[in-house]
């Protein structure tokens, strides 16, 4: 009997308080560790480590022994955006062994109910007619809602102010209360309020319609072609972890993601599970590298820095 610690990158300073970060990771992490226990018979500990947008947890794993006893479940924020926003003491791409991609969460563009727009093009037109007057809710500097709204400004030629909150859920409640104008956030945060008729949904940022909200058009269908992005999650081990251990961990991830209960829980949160062929270490490395190449220039050009 030995101990395998799964360090969960709970990005509680920013999106860790949202459905995109903490909830899917906890559901997946608990099941994947149980799955690994069936494969390799270890005793396991799931540790939720908060602080600095998840970089404390990820940094701890980067400094851990590369013996397979410590792994981390991270997300887009921890393994892409943070490196462009924070002065990290580790390399998000090269200080880890990739294990597997899990799922991704396309975001949804929503507004207060009374905003005078019936579709995405109407929202963009209203923002252009009211430059620097509208407010977009965020979960703090460098959070997905902040970065994606900044990307939205660039893509649409609009200008608006940002209203920062401690988390996406708090911002969404203020959107429903008509205190801010619009937001780009996780489906799990937004859809309950959309279905209650408290906010308006214009589009999802995936290439296909959401399985949990097929009535909402994609950004392509809504006229903002190519405005695609999502918050994704994956598993890594410290750099130098032996290939045979990485293989065992990958097998556990694949088995967990094939479990019907896990798939149903993740889908209910708006998560889209990556196809089996993308659940490999090589695929994760290539995917993360491409995301870094896409997002670092956008974040740096916008001057987004940790407060």
Describe the structure.
The chain has 307 residues and is an alpha/beta fold. The protein folds into two domains: 173 residues, 3-Layer(aba) Sandwich (D-Maltodextrin-Binding Protein, domain 2); 99 residues, Periplasmic binding protein-like II (D-Maltodextrin-Binding Protein, domain 2, 3-Layer(aba) Sandwich), CATH 3.40.190.10. Helix content is 40%, strand content 22%. It contains ten helices and ten strands. Strands 1, 2, 3, 4, 5, 6, 7, 8, 9 and 10 form a ten-stranded mixed β-sheet that branches. Helix 5 links the parallel strand 5 and strand 6. Helix 1 crosses helix 8 and helix 3 packs parallel to helix 10.
- Helix percent reads 40-55%
β-strand number: 10
CATH superfamily grouping of the largest domain: Bordetella uptake gene, domain 1
Biggest pleated-sheet summary: 10 strands, mixed
Beta content comes to 15-25%
Query: What is the second-level CATH architecture of the largest domain?
Result: 3-Layer(aba) Sandwich
Total domain count: 2
What is the CA–CA distance across the termini? 44 Å
């Amino acid at each position: 009997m030995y101990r395998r610690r799964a360090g969960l990158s709970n990005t509680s300073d920013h999106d860790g308080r949202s459905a995109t970060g903490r909830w899917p990771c906890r559901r997946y992490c608990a099941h994947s560790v149980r799955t690994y226990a069936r494969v390799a018979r270890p005793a396991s500990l799931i540790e939720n480590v908060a602080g600095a947008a998840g970089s404390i947890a990820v940094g701890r794993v980067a400094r851990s022994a590369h013996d397979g006893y410590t792994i981390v479940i991270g997300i887009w924020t921890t393994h892409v955006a943070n490196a462009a926003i924070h002065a990290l003491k580790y390399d998000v791409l090269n200080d880890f062994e990739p294990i597997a991609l899990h799922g991704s969460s396309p975001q949804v563009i929503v507004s207060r109910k009374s905003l005078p727009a019936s579709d995405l093009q109407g929202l963009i037109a209203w923002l252009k007619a009211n430059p620097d007057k509208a407010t977009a809710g965020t979960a703090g500097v460098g959070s997905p809602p902040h970065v994606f709204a900044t990307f939205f400004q660039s893509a649409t030629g609009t200008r608006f102010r940002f209203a920062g909150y401690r988390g996406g859920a708090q911002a969404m409640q203020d959107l429903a209360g008509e205190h801010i104008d619009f937001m780009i956030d996780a489906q799990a945060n937004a859809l309950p309020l959309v279905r209650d008729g408290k906010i308006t949904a214009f589009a999802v940022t995936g290439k296909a319609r959401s399985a949990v909200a097929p009535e909402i058009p994609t950004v392509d269908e809504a006229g903002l072609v190519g405005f695609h992005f999502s918050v994704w999650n994956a598993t890594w081990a410290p750099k130098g972890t032996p290939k045979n251990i990485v293989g065992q961990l990958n097998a556990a991830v694949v088995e967990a993601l094939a479990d019907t209960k896990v798939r149903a829980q993740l889908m209910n949160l708006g998560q889209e599970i990556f196809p089996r062929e993308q659940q490999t270490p090589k695929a994760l490395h290539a995917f993360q590298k491409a995301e870094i190449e896409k997002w670092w220039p956008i974040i740096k050009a916008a001057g987004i820095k940790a407060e």
